[in-house]
């Protein structure tokens, strides 16, 4: 026979929500940091394609 589950408390919901948001903030922060590094040209660990044209020698 099916029994209804106990209701999750409000504090438990808030704790889980904070953990979930903290993970998202951490990932966003790392992405922003990487983007800043690439845009300023100080990156030593990324290989990426630029739109600069390579001059050909004839």
Automatic annotation (TrEMBL):
What are its GO cellular component terms? Answer: chloroplast; large ribosomal subunit
Q: SUPFAM superfamilies from the entry?
A: Zn-binding ribosomal proteins
- Give the GO molecular function terms: structural constituent of ribosome
Q: Which UniProt keywords apply?
A: Chloroplast, Plastid, Ribonucleoprotein, Ribosomal protein
The superkingdom listed in its UniProt entry is Eukaryota
Where does it localize?
Plastid, Chloroplast
Q: Name one Pfam family in it.
A: Ribosomal_L32p
Which biological process terms from the Gene Ontology are attached to this UniProt entry?
A: translation
UniProt entry tagged with the keyword Ribonucleoprotein: yes
Entry annotated with the keyword Iron = no
Family of the protein in this entry? Belongs to the bacterial ribosomal protein bL32 family.
Matching entries from PANTHER family are given as: 50S RIBOSOMAL PROTEIN L32, CHLOROPLASTIC (PTHR36083), LARGE RIBOSOMAL SUBUNIT PROTEIN BL32C (PTHR36083:SF1)
Protein name from the UniProt record: Large ribosomal subunit protein bL32c
Q: Name its species.
A: Alsophila costularis
């Amino acid at each position: 026979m099916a029994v209804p589950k106990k209701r999750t408390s409000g504090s438990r919901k808030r704790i889980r929500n904070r953990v979930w948001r903290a993970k998202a903030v951490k990932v966003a922060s790392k992405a922003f940091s990487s983007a800043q590094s690439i845009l300023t040209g100080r990156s030593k660990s990324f290989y990426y394609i630029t739109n600069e044209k390579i001059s050909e020698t004839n």
